[in-house]
Design brief:
alpha/beta, FTHF_cligase-like_sf, about 200 residues, five-stranded parallel beta sheet
Length: about 200
């Protein structure tokens, strides 16, 4: 006797049972991809053009020193740091069970795997985040990226990712922004007001 199933589940089961062949991916001619003489300089320019700010540093203590000179950091009350060796925090997000309790975060300090010079974006692996909302709910963000891992373009970025495991990850480029109203660019409209990036 066939067990009773809901119609939606039956449809989904039938779909999963079919092996659908999709079109082959195009072959990318690597000689036509955009590359730069100095990817790090281009990354800094691209990031600045979308509202972010980059700092090239030589010592880890410089991250905290530079942030401390920013008034909104010096006056911050709630800082969640996922890189405590660089910047101490006073909110341990790993102990927070309800992400809604992070709504009053002033700053989040995160780490990025690599940057992309083409558009100033940074890949942040979700496994480094106790809660993915941290990147979007904090008033301000700082991301620490290895300066040796600045790639030329998004093709190289996706090649570096390979086939990602299921889960969360995101390319971040600058702070939150919108230009829906009168085509006037507004930063911090939906989330992070300002992004500081430290190339270490």
């Amino acid at each position: 006797m066939i067990p009773h199933t809901h119609s939606k589940q039956a449809v989904m089961d039938r779909l999963r049972g079919h092996d659908v062949k999709g079109p082959e991916l195009p072959i990318v001619d690597s000689s036509r991809l955009t590359t730069y003489d100095n990817p790090m300089d281009t990354f800094i320019e691209s990031l600045q053009s979308v509202g972010g700010q980059a700092h090239v540093i030589d010592r880890i203590e410089q991250v905290h020193q530079i942030l401390s000179e920013i008034p909104v950091f010096a006056d911050a009350e709630r800082i969640a740091s996922l890189a405590p060796d660089y910047v101490p925090g006073n909110v341990d997000a790993s102990l927070v069970t309800d992400p809604h309790h992070l709504e009053s975060l002033d700053w989040v300090i995160a780490t990025g795997e690599f940057g992309v010079a083409e558009n100033g974006s940074i890949w942040v692996d979700g496994k480094t985040l106790p809660h993915r909302v941290m990147l979007f709910i904090a008033q301000y963000s700082a991301i620490i990226v290895p300066k040796a891992k600045i790639l030329h373009n998004m093709h190289e970025g996706y090649a570096a990712l390979g086939t990602p495991e299921p889960g969360f990850g995101i390319f971040i480029s600058g702070p939150s922004k919108t230009a829906d109203i009168e085509q006037s660019l507004v930063l911090g409209a939906h989330g992070c007001r300002k992004l500081q990036v430290f190339l270490v």
